[in-house]
Structure to design on (203 residues):
């Protein structure tokens, strides 16, 4: 139940932390350890605490592109353009960042450093462990073109296997038998693996 008398000092007292730590968590700052952050977050959720200062802040969503070998064209460029249009229409600020598999910084720290309260993670398979840690941090997110087993995220995927089957059927129907296929690094995308499988099946 919501506590109308709750304030940041009472949140800090119940969580046994400083007021500054609660403020950092409310503002998605990164200078708080995960264990402490989780303890504060549970108290905030328990009392449904939502300070007025947070109500007028513009939503900032981090667009996280995972991996190093990707090209911003075709599917990816269309996806980013769609996200930008939606953000503009609904007054949502978006911040794009590249998440490298070997980077020491976690995705949640990258998001907090840029004051992002949620994430859209594209090609999550390239940084599976980092995405799993992001899910465990409690930051809401959506995965595009890939899954992360055990995460709390929503998945948005295309049926690449069926799409490749349709393309191959069309080409074979035209009489082609020697059909080449250029693919990207499959470690970055489950869709690429599905396309390859469908191509090999058709050949």
């Amino acid at each position: 139940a919501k506590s109308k008398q709750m304030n940041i000092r009472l949140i800090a007292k119940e969580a046994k932390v400083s007021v500054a730590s609660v403020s950092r968590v409310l503002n998605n700052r990164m200078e708080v350890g995960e264990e402490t952050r989780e303890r504060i977050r549970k108290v905030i959720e328990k009392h449904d605490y939502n300070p007025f200062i947070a109500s007028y802040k513009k939503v900032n969503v981090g667009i996280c592109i995972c991996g190093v070998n990707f090209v911003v064209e075709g599917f990816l460029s269309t996806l980013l353009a769609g996200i930008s249009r939606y953000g503009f229409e609904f007054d949502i600020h978006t911040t794009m960042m590249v998440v490298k598999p070997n980077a020491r910084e976690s995705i949640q720290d990258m998001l907090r450093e840029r004051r992002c309260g949620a994430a859209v993670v594209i090609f999550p398979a390239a940084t599976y462990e980092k995405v799993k840690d992001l899910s465990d941090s409690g930051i809401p997110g959506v995965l595009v073109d890939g899954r992360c087993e055990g995460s709390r995220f929503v998945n948005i995927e295309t049926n690449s296997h069926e799409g490749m089957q349709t393309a191959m059927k069309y080409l074979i129907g035209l009489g082609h038998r020697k059909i080449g296929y250029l693919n990207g690094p499959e470690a970055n995308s489950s869709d690429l693996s599905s396309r390859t499988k469908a191509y090999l099946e058709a050949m």
The radius of gyration is 21 Å. The chain is about 45% helix and 15% strand. Residues 165 and 201 are 9 Å apart (CA to CA). The longest strand covers residues 60-66.
